[in-house]
Write a structure and sequence with these properties.
alpha/beta, 6-stranded mixed beta sheet, 10 helices, about 35% helix
Length: about 300
C-alpha cells in the first residue's frame, strides 16, 4: 500500500485559512453531527508527560490524532504539544493523509473559539481583547478572531515580557489598531478575554469581568486544572462544545461544582446550539463563558478541509 501524503506544519497552515477552518466546523454541525456522541479522549501517562488518543468518524471520513503533551519541552526550546493526525477513508479505513498534529491543533482550537465568539458577540463594533498566553495558541487566536470580528485592541498578559511584546507586535502587523503587554487587571475593560495557557490555577479575578464580556478558556482539559475562577463561573452564562465532554474534563466547571458553587445544570448551551440557532439573546447582566476542552470531531472536520484544500 502506498504511504499517504504527509502534510507538514507549513503545508497545513498554507492549505486552510482560519476563516475556512471556522466554516468547516460550522458546516459539520449544521449537517447534523452530534458532539455528545463523540468518543472520549484517552490520556496515557508517560515519562515525558502524557499521550492523548483522539479518534472520530463522521460521514465518509474517519481519523485519529495522537498528541503528546511534554511540559519539559519548553526548557529544550521545543514545542509543548507534538503529534500527528491520520486521516482515513470512512468506508475502508484506508489512510488518506498524515498531518502534522501540532499544526492541526493550532488551527482547529482557535477556530472553535472564533466560531463561538461569532455567535456570542455582536459585530457592530470592534472588540477590546485581553489574551492570556503568548504561545502558538495565542497567535492562532489573534488570527482566528480577526477572521470573525474586528478588534479595537489586544492586550497580552504573559509571563515573559519579550514574548508578550512579540505577540502584541504581531497583532499590530495584522491590523489591530492598538496592542501591547498588560496585566490581568485589564480584564475589567475587556469585551473579550481569551485564556490559552498551561495554567492550572485561575489567571484573574472573575469579579472584575464586566457584564456582557465574553471569556474563552481553552488551555486545560483536566478535571483538576482551570484558568477561570469560581466567581466568574458562578455569575456567567456557560457555553461548551458538548455537555458530556465538559462534565468529564473541564476543571473550570468541575471545581466550582465540587465546591458547591454551581450545579450540573449550570451549562447554558452548546456550540451546536449556537450554530443551529436561534441566536442567543443580546448580552445581559452576566458575562458569557465559553469553555473548550478540545474534541476529536473538531480535528476530523478541520483535517478533512485541509486535505481537500491541499488536494485541489
Amino acid at each position: 500500500m502506498t504511504a499517504p501524503p504527509y502534510l507538514d506544519g507549513g503545508a497545513v497552515a498554507r492549505a486552510l485559512t482560519p476563516a475556512a477552518a471556522v466554516e468547516a466546523l460550522a458546516g459539520v454541525l449544521r449537517d447534523g453531527l452530534d458532539p455528545e456522541t463523540c468518543p472520549p479522549r484517552t490520556a496515557v501517562p508517560v515519562p515525558a508527560g502524557e499521550l492523548l488518543l483522539m479518534p472520530a468518524a463522521a460521514g465518509s471520513w474517519a481519523g485519529v490524532k495522537i498528541a503528546g503533551v511534554a511540559p519539559g519541552n519548553a526548557a529544550l526550546g521545543l514545542p509543548r504539544i507534538t503529534g500527528a493526525y491520520l486521516l482515513l477513508d470512512g468506508a475502508t479505513l484506508r489512510p488518506r493523509a498524515l498531518l502534522d498534529g501540532a499544526a492541526l491543533t493550532a488551527l482547529r482550537t482557535p477556530a472553535v473559539s472564533a466560531l463561538a465568539v461569532r455567535h456570542l458577540t455582536s459585530g457592530e463594533r470592534p472588540l477590546r481583547m485581553v489574551v492570556f498566553g503568548s504561545g502558538p495558541q495565542a497567535y492562532g487566536h489573534v488570527d482566528a478572531l480577526l477572521a470573525v470580528r474586528k478588534l479595537a485592541s489586544v492586550t497580552v498578559v504573559g509571563r515573559d515580557p519579550g514574548r508578550a511584546g512579540g505577540l502584541a507586535a504581531y497583532a499590530r502587523a495584522a491590523g489591530v489598531p492598538e496592542a501591547g503587554a498588560g496585566t490581568a487587571a485589564e480584564v475589567a475593560g475587556a469585551d473579550l478575554v481569551v485564556c490559552c495557557t498551561a495554567a492550572r490555577e485561575p489567571l484573574f479575578d472573575g469579579r472584575r469581568v464586566a457584564p456582557g464580556t465574553v471569556v474563552v478558556a481553552v488551555g486545560s482539559h483536566e478535571p483538576d486544572a482551570r484558568e477561570t475562577d469560581t466567581a466568574l463561573v458562578r455569575r456567567s452564562e456557560v457555553w461548551v462544545e458538548a455537555r458530556a465532554a465538559a462534565l468529564r474534563e473541564a476543571g473550570d466547571l468541575l471545581i466550582p461544582e465540587a465546591e458547591g458553587a454551581i450545579g450540573p445544570g449550570h451549562v447554558t448551551g452548546t456550540l451546536a446550539d449556537l450554530v443551529r440557532g436561534p441566536e442567543p439573546p443580546a448580552p445581559g447582566p452576566a458575562p458569557r463563558l465559553f469553555k473548550s476542552v478540545g474534541m476529536a470531531w473538531q480535528d476530523l472536520a478541520v483535517a478533512v478541509a485541509v486535505h481537500r484544500a491541499a488536494s485541489a
